[in-house]
Amino acid sequence: MPRPPQRLAGRIWVGSVTVLIAFIAYSSQIFIIWPWYGREFSFELVQLLLPFNLLVAFLYWNYFLCVYTDPGTIPRDWEPNPTSEEGFELKTLTGTPRFCRHCERYKPPRAHHCRKCKRCVLRMDHHCPWVDNCVGHYNYAHFLRFLWAVDVACSYHVAMISYRVWYAILYPYWEPSGFELAFIVANYVTCLPVLVAVGVFSLYHFYCLFTNTTTVEGWEKDKVTTLVRRGKITEVSFPYNLGLIENVRAVFGGSPLLWCWPKHPVPGDGLKFSVAPGTDESEQYAWPPKDPMREREKQTKHELPSSPWTFGNGDVNPALRPTSSKLRTANVPPYHPSYRGPRHRDGWRDEEDEDYVEEEEEEEEVQQKPGLRMRRGSEGWEATMPDRWAQLQIESAVNKES
């Protein structure tokens, strides 16, 4: 079923990619190759440009199919049937079929929910912003053909432009004009980054094709490897790796002659998949294995008390104290209002002090000395500032005598 781009941002992305492909493909032919051949049709010109234009047409066709082909979603009335051969994936601990809370549907194996498309996608690989669509069961083959076409067409384009530059170096008579030179630089600047970026991306996806793995399952395999290395689970084999040839056939179909034909029907319905030879059919329903510790934590219910001030037995926590309580019980002098100890000053005693023994306190007579003055209501002496000049003179005289 045709599916046009859904959002305004998606239309902008798709339009930008279309314009970029058109600029690289046709500006090189019109402003570089055509003037080089003297603006006249010839057999050599057709021989050079015909394969390139066929690659561009093949690229556009697969890009159109990537954008407008529905990757596949779960049928509304589909439910797992354990008595039939139709597979369904189970949760590891509960043993119940996987269920999408957003779509409110059961999820078959390899299906995942896309937050951008807001639906579950069959055999979901990833959501591609360049096509404003999810890459899934029904358009994954178109996506791989599109990547292959971009790699080959960009390589052909770079070779064609480089041949023009090399020819100008060997024969200065055919030196390009300033206008042609500007388009040569512009084509290099736009085509080489595309070739490098898409080339690396293609290597990863062709590796996924040869191992029958999606991008999501690649992340899952990395998590499983980490769990095995940490000793949390035993080693588990990936259930969908059927072998090199069978993995390619699972995506492009049975006949190798039709692998490059875009309208070749996709094998399967995306609701069940073949497993590797010697693998139990039920192993695919338990993929990927979960972290047992994390799943156990999810099953444990932590109930909080109704009030943050209650203790475990429902009473107030006896150890609960204000954070400033230590400041309030700090050591203070006896005359301070917050003082809680026995008071023994000027013959006055604290009646609540049980350890107090009544004794007569002899007040020491403090003889006032010259240079010192006593502050009333204080327990200490307050000294005046010393005469530093006099002290220096005394120290100087002592040093001279010594």
From TrEMBL:
Palmitoyltransferase DHHC domain ranges (all copies): 96-221
Keyword Acyltransferase: yes
Disordered: annotated segments: 280-387
Keywords on record: Acyltransferase, Endoplasmic reticulum, Lipoprotein, Membrane, Palmitate, Transferase, Transmembrane, Transmembrane helix
Membrane-traversing stretches: 12-37, 49-68, 146-169, 181-204
Domain of life of the organism encoding this protein: Eukaryota
Record note on domains: The DHHC domain is required for palmitoyltransferase activity.
PANTHER family: PALMITOYLTRANSFERASE ZDHHC16
Name of this protein: Palmitoyltransferase PFA4
Organism whose genome encodes this protein: Serendipita vermifera MAFF 305830
Gene from which the chain derives: PFA4
